[in-house]
Structures are given as C-alpha cells and as structure tokens.
C-alpha cells in the first residue's frame, strides 16, 4: 500500500501516526464505460445547480454491470477488498474493486446487499436508475448496478480517503482542523440541497459514516443513502438516541428527518464525538459551548463561527419537524463561514523504506550530522 497523509489533519505530536491507503485513481485515458472525472480543485461556494452540478462529460456514465464483471473486479468478493467500517459484520458489505475492462483501471465501490434484500429486481433497478441520474461533485455518485438472480449490487465512485467518522472518532493523535470541519458542513449541505432540488430530498440515516473523502481530500456525500429502504434494511440505525423523533412515532422518513440527522453530523463536527443530541442540546441551552467543543482543537477555532454552527445544529434538532430549517437555509448559513478557501486537501506521500529510516536515525545519532527529511507530496 502507498502512504497517504491527511494534510487537513492538524497533528499535535512530533511523531505522527501514518495513515495507509491505496491511491486509487490513475488519470490517463477515457473509456466508454467510465468517463474521466476532473472537476479541478474545489473551493467553497454557495450551492447552485448550474455552478456545482457538472455536465455529463465530467462524471462517470451510469451502466448496468454483469455479476461476472464485479466478481472479477473484487477477486470474487474477497474479504481483502472489504472497505465497510464494520467489515464483514456490516449488514450490506461494501467492497472496493477495479474493473478489468476499464483502460483507466479505476477503482470503484460496490455495495452488496444481503440475499433477497430487494426481492423485486425491477424495483431495485428503477431505484438505482433514479439515483444514478444524479450527478454532482459533492456526491460520491452512483455509476451502476447489477441484478443477477438473487444478487443486488450498487456501484459507485470510490472515495480513497476514508470516512468522516474514521477521521473524527478513530484517530488518537490527530484531528481535522476547524476550517475543514466547516467545509464538510457546507459541502454536505450543498449535496443535500442539490438532491432536494432534483426531487430526491430523502436521505436514509445520514451520519458521519456517510461522509467520504475523495482523492483530493474533499468531503462528499455517499450516494447509497439516497436509495429507498429495502425490505430487510432500516432507514435509521438501531441506536434510538440519534433517531429523529417523528421516525420513532410513525416509521417514516421525511425531508425534515434528514435535517435532524444533519444536525447530529454538525454535533459530530463540533465535538469530535458521537454524542446523543439530547445531551448536546442540554449543553447548548446551558451555554456550555466550550464543554461541547472538541478538545483536540485546542482553541484553534473561531468561537463566533462555532456559535453559528451550534445555533444551526440546535435548529436542526428541534423536536417539531416544521421548526427545522430547509436545505437552502443550511447552505445560506454555512457559506459565509468559509473564509479559508485554501484549506489543505488530502495529499499522499512516499513511504520511506524502514531500512532507510533506520540509517537516517543512525546518521543523526552517530555521525554528528543534522538530518532533515522531507516527504515529497504527490497527487495521484
């Protein structure tokens, strides 16, 4: 594996933990099946369909894949290709794969549903095509599906730099800097606003695991949550503390339910923890904002901006759905906070051989030589 270092993560320790990933995009040639995605560097902007939803030529085409193609892409769905946070224990496992007949050898993400999760193949295909019509640079777009016998699979753009949950909750000695947290909030709001404008306002179980980082280190919303509920699936996790109250009453997902879930993501970004909304709201009402802030930020954030995000989270988490803001309100509130357009993106580094590192330290200690090692950044 290559060595990938998250440069938007501020690391307080002098010795840093290295994050290992595949660098999964090789931008050489275009193919008929997959069109090269190249939106250029991203910068904060106010959402608008014309400015953010690129033309068809800028995104991968939507296709129906054969089961044989996807088996070949994943080495027959080998466990080595699983990228689900919970591994094989996930109810619907996600694999990374590489299409054998694609000249770009581009990596893809494949969500494999449990057997008969979607009993009606036509319903599954129709739903996949509906989500596949969406194309936006804030979304990890759906690029295909497969219906073969009892198999139901979705194929999406692969995001090589992990989930928001992993960066927020599962790193010990690093954290996402404040400017990037604000970017995550805006970009996901823009994605939701786009989907709503395209007649897809429902998003199932929006949470930090649904926010992915692309090859440039920019956040994107997973397309998988846009699919309607399957027979054996659940729109929301079994953890009732994070579930919109109206869903507990009637079991239905509404656009307002999505806003509630967005509020929980804002709390994640502020606190660096996955804490129940009711507990967080008690802190907000008590004006104990600093108690809720992620201690890893160590004061490296704007209290004024944090207050704006807190207030927005509080509005999103209102018990009555009609009292919550809509997606355009989210974007309007968050866009003015993007005052650092040059916030660092994810970059990759060369992984130095262990023997070289041992030699370097030997020279430092035994050769009276001041040694400076720099990691050369490169983008795939």
Automatic annotation (TrEMBL):
Q: Name one Pfam family in it.
A: PK_Tyr_Ser-Thr
Question: Which keywords belong to this entry?
Answer: ATP-binding, Brassinosteroid signaling pathway, Cell membrane, Kinase, Lipoprotein, Membrane, Myristate, Nucleotide-binding, Serine/threonine-protein kinase, Transferase, Transmembrane, Transmembrane helix
Q: How does it sit in the membrane?
A: Lipid-anchor
Enumerate the GO terms in the molecular function aspect. Answer: ATP binding; protein serine/threonine kinase activity
GO CC field: plasma membrane
Q: Where is this region: Disordered?
A: 18-49
Write the Enzyme Commission number(s) for this entry.
2.7.11.1
Q: Which Gene3D superfamilies match?
A: Phosphorylase Kinase, domain 1, Transferase(Phosphotransferase) domain 1
Q: Which domain of life is it from?
A: Eukaryota
GO process terms (BP):
brassinosteroid mediated signaling pathway
Q: Where is the Protein kinase domain?
A: 80-338
| Catalytic activities | L-threonyl-[protein] + ATP = O-phospho-L-threonyl-[protein] + ADP + H(+); L-seryl-[protein] + ATP = O-phospho-L-seryl-[protein] + ADP + H(+)
Q: Low complexity: which segments have biased composition?
A: 25-39
Compartment list: Cell membrane
**Ranges annotated as spanning the membrane:** 359-378
Q: What is its main location?
A: membrane
Family, according to the entry, reads as follows: Belongs to the protein kinase superfamily. Ser/Thr protein kinase family.
Known PANTHER family for this protein?
A: SERINE/THREONINE-PROTEIN KINASE BSK5, SERINE_THREONINE-PROTEIN KINASE BSK11
* Name of the protein: non-specific serine/threonine protein kinase
């Amino acid at each position: 594996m290559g060595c990938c270092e998250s440069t938007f993560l501020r690391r307080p320790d002098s010795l840093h933990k290295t994050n290992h990933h595949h660098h999964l995009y090789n931008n050489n040639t275009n193919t008929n099946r997959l069109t090269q995605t190249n939106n250029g560097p991203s910068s904060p902007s106010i959402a608008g369909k014309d400015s953010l939803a690129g033309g068809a030529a800028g995104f991968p085409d939507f296709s129906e894949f054969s089961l044989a193609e996807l088996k070949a892409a994943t080495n027959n769905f080998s466990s080595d290709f699983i990228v689900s946070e919970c591994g094989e224990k996930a109810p619907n496992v996600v694999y990374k794969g590489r299409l054998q007949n694609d000249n770009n050898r581009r990596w893809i993400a494949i969500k494999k549903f449990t057997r008969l999760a979607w009993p009606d193949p036509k319903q599954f295909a129709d739903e996949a095509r509906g989500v596949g019509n969406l194309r936006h640079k804030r979304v990890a777009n759906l690029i295909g599906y497969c219906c073969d016998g009892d198999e139901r699979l979705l194929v999406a753009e692969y995001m090589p730099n992990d989930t928001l949950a992993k960066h927020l909750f599962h790193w010990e000695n690093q954290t996402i800097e404040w400017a990037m947290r604000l970017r995550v909030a805006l970009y996901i709001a823009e994605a939701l606003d786009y989907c709503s404008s395209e007649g897809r306002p429902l998003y199932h179980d929006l949470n930090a695991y649904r926010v992915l980082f692309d090859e440039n280190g920019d956040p994107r919303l997973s397309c998988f949550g846009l699919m309607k509920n399957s027979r054996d699936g659940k729109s929301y996790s079994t953890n009732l503390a994070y579930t919109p109250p109206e869903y507990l009453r009637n079991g239905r997902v509404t656009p307002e339910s999505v806003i509630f879930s967005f509020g929980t993501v804002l709390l994640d970004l502020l606190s660096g923890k996955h804490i129940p909304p009711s507990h967080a709201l008690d802190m907000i009402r008590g004006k104990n904002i600093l108690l809720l802030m992620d201690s890893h930020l160590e004061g490296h954030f704007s209290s004024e901006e944090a207050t704006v995000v807190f207030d927005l989270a509080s509005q999103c988490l209102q018990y009555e759905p009609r009292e919550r803001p809509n997606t355009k309100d989210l974007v309007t509130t968050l866009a003015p906070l993007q005052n650092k357009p040059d916030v660092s993106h994810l970059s990759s580094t060369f992984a130095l051989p262990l023997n070289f590192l041992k030699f370097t330290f030997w020279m430092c200690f035994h050769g009276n030589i001041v040694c400076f090692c720099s990691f050369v950044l490169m983008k795939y």
